[in-house]
Structure formats: C-alpha cells, structure tokens
Amino acid sequence: MSGLSHWQLDCSAPELYERYLVPAITAKWAADLVERAGLRPEERVLEVACGTGIVARLASLRTGDGRVTGLDLNQGMLAVARTASGKAIGFIEGSALDLPFAGGAFDVVLCQLGLQFFPDRAKALSEMRRVLLAGGRLAVSVYSPIENTPGAHAFVEALDRVLGSEASRIKRGEHSFAAAGELQELLHNAELENVRVDTVVQRIAFPSVLDYVRFQLLATPMAALLGNHPESERQVVIDKIASEVADMSEDEMLQGGGFSFPQEAYVGTARAPG
Predict the structure, then answer these.
(1) Do residues 52 and 20 lie in contact, with contact meaning Cβ atoms separated by under 8 Å?
(2) Exposure pattern of 39-58 as b/e (b: 16+ CB <10 Å)?
(3) How many domains does the chain divide into?
C-alpha cells in the first residue's frame, strides 16, 4: 500500500481528481489535443466540459490571459478549476447542449473526453459549430472501446465480480464509442469540414494497482458505488477490487510494483465552413 491510505478523507472528489487523475491521465490527453488544435496567440478559445480545466490552462499558455473560457455543468469541478487557474481563464456553468454564447464567438472550440457523456451528441456538436467563427477550428477526443485500454478493462471486470454486474456501467460509459468512424460521422453530420479522426495511444502509469483503483472509486462519479459504505468497509472493497485487477493484468503492466498500460482514444479535428 502506498502512503496515500488516508488521502480520500482530506479533499472533495473534484480536488482529488485534479490532484491525482489530471497528472496521471488527462494532462497527457490535454497536451495532445491543444497541440492538434494549433492554437495561436490572441485566439479566442472555448473548452466544453472543462472539468477542472487542464485543457483550458494549457490553451491559455498558447493564447494569452483572458482569451480562454471553460464551460461545465459541475459546480464542484468549476470551483477547483477557478482555484487552479487564477484569473487568467473565465469559467462558466452551462450545458454543452445550449452554449450561452453568440454565434461565431470563438476561433477554436475544444472538448476533451466529454462528448461520450452528452445525452445528445449531435446537438452538442451543432452548438460547438454554431459558436465557431467561419473557418474556426474544433478538436475533440473520446475514448475508444474499453477492451483497447487493458487497465480499464481489467478494472471494469473486477468491479462486476466484486460489486455486481451493473457496477461498471459508469466506467464502461466512458468508452461508448465503438469505432473511430462514429466520431467521424458525427463531425460530418454537424456540417464541419476538413474532418480528420486519428486513433491515439498514451501510456498511463500509477504508483500501484491499489492507487489506480482508489482514484477511480473516490475521485470520479464512481464514488457513488461506495457512498453508503463506512470507511472501513470501503477500504476492504477497494482492496478486493485491486487484488482482482492485479490478477487479471499482464505481467508487463505490473513492473516494479507500479501499474502501467496503454490507453486509446479517438481524436477528431475539423473546421467550421467558411
């Protein structure tokens, strides 16, 4: 067990997400997305479903202070985003299905690993296109099928074994795009141009299997699975799931006591007409 045995008691889930999952996972995808978007100084950028704001922070480094806006429905995530970013970025509570901005308000719209959760993906992409100026750029990423990310696949299998067949529903929902073509079709249907979708792999690493399982169950919406359990019982369940994940993992994923595996996503870029 690592030295993080009591970390879940010290912070809210959004704070834990920012402290542990952003550096381990989402910062890598954010750097890739911002690079593909080709941001330039003075461009106006919107990040949709910004969470704690890692994409917005990296975008602000490219565009300059006051040029980036982050939008999310989750007030807790936005509070952490504001603390982490200071006054350089404006964060707004709002829905991806009804963006509170005028048409053509942004040069670039970014959406990292959020589209898969929207109840109407087509509507969300239509809104992103609407707020882009003519010729503006969109960059969006979604996870590929969970079987292509072996650490996450072992985790959902372990969840179902320990907590029942519906326990992994939220985590599997992160990986609901079955093929790159699904994202490509959505972008084309949104009347975007120069559509390109790449399959991208990042190497994800955690100090241990136990830490990975803790982070998933205490710093994401999956915390609801253990919400009614007392602290001592939560730890027993987490230990059991971690043991199952380790048993199902290939040896190369467990080198040196750590937990490392490839994570795959589809990353799409496109332009607004004009």
Answers:
(1) no
(2) beeebbbbbbbbbbbbbbbb
(3) 1
Q: What is the CATH number of the domain that holds 259?
A: 3.40.50.150
The Cα 189–Cα 175 span in angstroms is 21
Q: Is residue 242 part of a domain?
A: yes
- Strand ordering across the sheet containing 193-206: 90-93, 68-72, 45-48, 106-112, 132-143, 259-271, 193-206
Would the pLDDT of 28 be above 90? yes
Q: Which amino acid is at 118?
A: F
Mean pLDDT over each residue of the chain, to the nearest integer: 94
